[in-house]
Amino acid sequence: MSAKIIAGTLLYETSKEPLWTKLAKPIKHELCKYLCMSSKLIHDPRFYQTLHKIWLKRQEYDITKIVEESQNTIDCAICMETFKHDGKDKITTLLCGHTFCTPCMFKHIEQRGFEAACPMCRSCLYTPPTSQKNKPEVVYINIIAEEKRKKRRIQRLVKHQKKKEKNLKSKII
Asked: Which domain holds residue 92?
């Protein structure tokens, strides 16, 4: 494998940050070409800082992309497939507010008939929910709470990655 391919892979495709100072010279030279820097700077700390910044920006971009994709998709709790809210995938939202892929819901209803209930909360599929937890304002509050949970999960992921990064830095220095 050529040094150019390895350099590009390390900079743009790895999930774990490489130890930039431990790389072979040909790879460092290729990284200099990527950064439009002189090859004489391969031992300069600024070179490693620049590599680190670029790698972090790419990681942040990946996390942002994951967040955007998770906001536009649902996971069917029956078949565990991911579906998009773009109108192309067939998605069914039940009266209780839970969402599933349409083929799974049809199979579920076909198997259970009039006794079919939501696979998540077991509320009846054919009559509107009357309990307090299924009122529209409560469902809306639950949706907001779920979005906050997703956001917090992402924040924890970012914090964890920064902590790993800080530990790697301290090992390098």
From this structure: 72-134
